[in-house]
């Protein structure tokens, strides 16, 4: 059973471009979480999705950021018109049920660099 | 989520036990205590969780006080590869919100 797969591992975008980060959860997991980690800082919750539904997006910036988890395919975190401050590591996690009731499994992250 | 408090840093000699404390004085009866760790630049890794009984697995032991207001993660024989940031989390199982609040954690440094 492959772990949580994130791609790309590294992504470089120029200011104003779009960044699309993909996350394939573990097999059988329908709950997905996205976190952002700025350099030398802790993990900040962004959004929690459960197949086709956004359950909690309280950590998502109001503009430019969106997330989806379609019925088929990976979860996508999309950042439009990227700015330098978006440079960070973005981690995805998945779990079979809500992660307050079981452990969550994390991917290795996508390192986004905005130049 | 119950608020958790951890020391910002600790160190430990290789081969010795590392005991990482966590205070969660506002924890409610249905909230588990989870421990994760993040080795530099990698994705966080689940270690162990418990409700009120002590727990042990192949990675660590978790000791939870009887009043559940604090816990200690024990790495019985720390190695250099255990150097990481360790996070103690107590998610609110009664909440409809999904976020796990990681806080700043404890930077454990294991020295040779």
Secondary-structure blueprint:
The complex is a heterodimer of chains A (115) and B (112).
Chain A: E1 5-7, E2 10-13, E3 19-24, E4 31-37, E5 43-50, E6 53-56, E7 65-68, E8 75-79, E9 88-95, E10 105-106, E11 110-114
Parallel strand pairs in A: 2-11
Antiparallel strand pairs in A: 1-3, 3-8, 4-5, 4-9, 5-6, 7-8, 9-10, 9-11
Chain B: E1 9-13, E2 18-23, E3 33-38, E4 45-50, E5 55-56, E6 61-64, E7 70-75, E8 84-89, E9 106-111
Parallel strand pairs in B: 1-9
Antiparallel strand pairs in B: 2-7, 3-4, 3-8, 5-6, 6-7, 8-9
What are the key terms here?
heterodimer; A: 115 residues; mainly beta; 4-stranded antiparallel β-sheet; 11 strands; globular; B: 112 residues; 5-stranded mixed β-sheet; 9 strands; 42% strand
Describe this structure in words.
- The complex is a heterodimer of chains A (115) and B (112).
- Chain A has 115 residues and is mostly beta strands.
- In chain A, 0% of the residues lie in helices and 49% in strands.
- In chain A, strands 2, 4, 5, 6, 9, 10 and 11 form a 7-stranded mixed beta sheet that branches. In chain A, strands 1-3-8-7 form a 4-stranded antiparallel beta sheet, with no helix packed on it.
- The N and C termini of chain B lie far apart (37 Å).
- In chain B, the strands form 2 sheets. Chain B has a 5-stranded mixed beta sheet, with no helix packed on it. In chain B, strands 2-7-6-5 form a 4-stranded antiparallel beta sheet, with no helix packed on it.
- With 112 residues, chain B is mostly beta strands.
- Classes of the chains: A mainly beta (115), B mainly beta (112).
- Chains A and B meet through strand 4, strand 5, strand 9 and strand 10 of A and strand 4 of B.
